[in-house]
Amino acid sequence: MKEIVFNKKKYDSYKDFYIQIYRDLEGKEIPDWEDYDALHYNADLLDEFLWYCHNDNIKYIFVNFDKEKIALQKNYDDYQFQIIIEIFEDFVEKFPNNKLEYKMDKE
Predict the structure, then answer these.
(1) Facing residues of 101 across strands?
(2) Phi first, then psi: what are they for 60, rounded to 5°?
(3) Which letter, b or e, does each residue of 50-82 get, where b requires 16 or more Cβ atoms within 10 Å of its Cβ?
(4) How confident is the model at residue 107 (pLDDT cuts 50, 70, 90)?
(5) Per residue in 24-72, pLDDT tens?
(6) Which ranges of the chain does DSSP label H, i.e. alpha helix?
(7) Which candidate, 49, 47, 9, 14, places its Cα nearest to that of 32?
(8) Are strands 2-7 and 58-63 parallel, antiparallel or unpaired?
(9) For residue 103, how many other CB atoms are within 10 A of its CB?
(10) Helices (H) and strands (E) in the chain, counts
(11) Nearest to residue 37, comparing CAs of 27, 52, 45, 47?
(12) What CA dihedral angle connects 46, 80, 41 and 10, to 10 degrees?
């Protein structure tokens, strides 16, 4: 199973997260998605895009995504991160050959 790690500490905003998702899932290599850099930062496009990867058997590892803090939605980035998290959670539920794991760095 391929693993893709997303570390929230590496992002200045949710837009950086979209950029990494698109890059790591090789969006440029998928003909229907080659013109959608960073998925236009759009949750609906992300949801549809993930469907194209549903047979890839990927373990998504979200590092430093404190779901409780994000759920408080203290700013717009938290709001967007919450939506992305929900999309991934729904995705792995629909396609259990893919996995989602949360980890926190030890401080």
Answers:
(1) 61
(2) -90, 125
(3) beebeeeebebbbeebeeeebeeeeeebbebbb
(4) low
(5) 999 999 999 999 999 999 999 999 999 999 999 999 999 999 999 999 9
(6) 14-24, 43-51, 67-71, 76-94
(7) 49
(8) parallel
(9) 12
(10) 4, 3
(11) 27
(12) -100
DSSP 55: T
Residue with tokens 């998702």: 21
Residue type for position 98? N
Cα angle at 56 between 54 and 62, to 5 degrees? 85
Other beta carbons within 10 angstroms of residue 46's beta carbon come to 23
Three-state DSSP state, 85:
helix
Report the alpha-carbon distance of residue 97 to residue 56 in Å, rounded: 8
pLDDT for the residue numbered 106:
77
